[in-house]
Design a protein that fits this description.
Blueprint (H helix, E strand, L loop, with lengths): L6 E7 L5 H13 L2 E7 L1 H4 L4 H8 L17 H4 L6 E7 L1 H8 L6 H7 L5 E5 L3 H5 L1 H12 L3 E2 L3 E4 L5 E5 L3 H12 L8 E6 L4 E2 L5 E2 L6 H12 L3 E6 L11 E4 L3 H12 L4 E4 L6 E3 L19 E3 L3 H6 L6 E8 L3 H12 L3 E6 H4 L4 E8 L2 E9 H23 L1
Parallel strand pairs: 1-2, 1-3, 3-4, 4-5, 8-11, 8-13, 11-12, 13-16, 16-17
Antiparallel strand pairs: 6-7, 9-10, 14-15, 17-18, 18-19
Helix pairs in contact: 1-3, 1-9, 5-8, 9-10, 10-15
This protein binds ligand PMT.
């Protein structure tokens, strides 16, 4: 059984123009499995209507300190009880000043003062307001008080100026919140992950590769980081940004990936092979661009690449090894055969035609205890559930060894 770790937050929306992005933030938090209760300031209600947030969150939106619909008429306390965090996005300069000084003259500021859970703020304001020494002092005070501050970013502003103060994009905030709330199941563990395709040259400009985008492997890397692991990511050629906090080695061919894995695998506790490694490479690729000739055939001699996962799993003291299997049919049977042949305790099976390149995935986990199906979900969500499962098996292996 995969354990559910449902989280819930209060999303506080204050009166900045970036309040419109908070509507998307509700959706993005939900996408990460986070339940959202929206609380708005009076000024925010002038920017976006509560009806929008009510429709998106499926819950009444609160703004009034003395809301009779809340038990005991204590909205300023009740609404954050049992929540995993309060997230204020956008957080205006004025609201940040209130928080820094412990003011509680409306529902949202009172909730923040009376909270028992972590507070996360995403500032959004004009660049001069952000650079003003008063705001700098207030933000420093919040950080010293243990408040997590996300952003801001630099760029075009609603006022027409350009500079620091833009709120982070909703997806970035949701990802950071999900990471912040993730249980630290792999605290201190060293995790080595491969991701993306490999590229096997035919000549100087051509090669054999596959459609792996790296999305799944990078999502696994982010989920491991969020779980407190130290992550090394060995990536084939993809166009994704490096996950913040991971050590990244970029490689081209399967042989280069193998060398990088050899270098790092002795110092890892968990190895996760998400990469779609080419099984074959061209024997002796041409050092010049092959010219088209009158012949109607070009024969390439292919030789097998080393099996990186099997090599890691057969080391004298192997890390906990996880493989991925992309199949187009008979998924469980082929994946289990691969698991046994490569001698790995856990194989993650997915349908190649649905998994490769897409944003979502549906996987089956195969281990000694049987099969566990995870429902189709965004790759970040699948990756978190996979990391929770790995942490459980890895923990059991360590306890057995002690
Ligand atoms: O990158 P995305 O677009 O997000 O797509 C993700 C994915 C579909 C590529 C990913 O989820 C996935 O399934 N990766 C494994 C692809 C595959 O089919 O691998 P395989 O069946 O050839 O190999 C099985 C396992 O052995 C894999 O862990 C692979 O990394 C490893 N292997 C394979 C060959 C080889 N020479 N060395 C290896 O280590």
């Amino acid at each position: 059984m995969i354990e559910s770790s449902a989280k819930s937050v209060v999303l506080g929306v204050t009166g900045g123009i970036a309040a419109y992005k908070a509507a998307q933030l509700v959706r993005d938090l939900q996408r990460h499995g986070i339940d959202v209760q929206v609380v708005m300031t009076e000024a925010a209600r002038g920017m976006v209507t509560p009806a929008t947030f009510q429709a998106l969150s499926g819950k009444p939106v609160h703004s009034d300190m003395w809301d009779a619909s809340v038990p005991d008429n204590m909205a300023h306390i009740e609404l954050s009880r049992g929540k995993d965090a309060i997230v204020v996005a956008p957080a205006t300069a004025d609201f940040i000043a209130k928080l820094a000084n412990g003011l509680a003259d409306d529902l949202l500021s009172a909730l923040c003062l009376a909270r028992e859970c972590p507070l996360i703020v995403a500032p959004a304001m004009n660049r001069q307001m952000w650079e003003n020494p008063a705001t700098r002092r207030n933000v420093d005070r919040l950080i010293r008080d243990g408040v997590a501050v996300l952003g801001p970013a630099s760029g075009d502003q609603a006022c027409g100026e350009v500079g620091m103060g833009r709120m982070l994009e909703a997806g970035e905030i949701a990802e950071a919140v999900a990471g912040f709330l993730a249980p630290k199941l792999l605290a201190g563990a060293r995790v080595l992950i491969t991701a993306g395709p490999t590229f096997e040259p035919i000549d100087t400009v051509r090669g054999i590769t596959n459609l792996s985008s790296g999305k799944m492997g990078y999502a696994v890397a982010r989920a491991a980081l969020d779980a407190g692991a130290r992550v090394t990511l060995i990536s084939g050629p993809v166009s994704l940004p490096a996950p913040a906090g991971a050590e990244v080695a970029r490689v081209g061919t399967a042989s280069e990936m193998f060398e990088a894995v050899k270098k790092h695998s002795a110092r890892c506790d968990i190895y996760i092979g998400v990469a779609a490694v080419a099984d074959y490479r061209v024997d002796k690729p041409s050092r010049h661009k092959i010219k088209k000739t009158e012949r109607d055939q070009l024969n390439l001699r292919l030789v097998p690449n080393p099996d990186i996962l099997a090599w890691v799993a057969q080391r004298p003291r192997p890390p906990f090894c996880v493989g991925f299997a992309a199949e187009s049919r008979d998924l469980d049977a082929y994946a289990d055969e691969k698991r046994r042949r490569k001698k790995v305790p856990l194989m993650v099976a997915n349908l190649a035609q649905e998994a490769i390149g897409s944003d979502d995935n549906e996987v089956t986990l195969l281990d000694d205890r049987g099969t566990h199906k995870l429902p189709r979900a965004p790759k970040d969500v699948v990756a978190r559930q996979l990391i929770a499962h790995i942490a459980k098996l890895y923990g059991a292996k360590r306890r057995k060894a002690e």
